[in-house]
Prior knowledge:
Elements (H helix, E strand, L loop, with lengths): L2 H16 L7 E4 L5 H10 L4 E3 L3 H9 L4 E2 L9 E7 L8 H11 E12 L7 H5 L8 H11 L1 E9 L1 H12 L7 H23 L9 E8 L1
Parallel strand pairs: 1-2, 1-4, 2-3, 4-5
Antiparallel strand pairs: 5-7, 6-7
Helix pairs in contact: 1-2, 7-8
Amino acid sequence: MKKHLLFYKKKAINDLTSVYNEKDEVLDFGAGLGAISELFYQRTNCRPDCLEIDKNLASELVKNGFKTFDNVEKIDKQYNIIYSLHVLEHIQDDEKSIEKIYSLIKPGGNFIIIVPAMPILYSQFDKEMGHFRRYSKKDLDSKLENAGFEIIKSNYQDFLGFFIGIIFKTLNYNKTDISVSDNSYKIYDRIFRLSILFDKIGGNKIAGKNLLVFARKR
């Protein structure tokens, strides 16, 4: 695991558990293989429900003990917490999905989102990863508020990652450039603690590779 990716993965768990209360019902919206949900379960002893439309991934989630939905229309309950980590950018009509998520959250419940940030960074790599967009704070906050959410916190993450993204875009980096990827990430792993520092002293208000938003249903 690349060090900076592991750090932000653990940070996501810290963010999630900071709003969790015992007996809260939780949904992972776009669970993949359930890596985050498994960590969340280990931390809280709460096993989240999972939404995953990929049939193969959904099957693996079920094997690993997670209650899993392969279609959002099959969900017949509301949750105290829904989180969606690097999912909305893969959905063409993200506003419709945000409205659906709003309907699945109990009044006063929380929606936690992480998405790729800064439209200026959108590149060939994003296209190959199936990203329809990267988000600005203004754009995502507006979509959430239009659905009825109140924005509690909206910050960029990984200030120096923004500049790495500029380099990747300039080099026309794509996901098949394994040697570029490995070398670049090895270099970045050595300096990413500086990015954490910049985030802490206010860089996350200016720019970053990702965007973290906490929203609440009024």
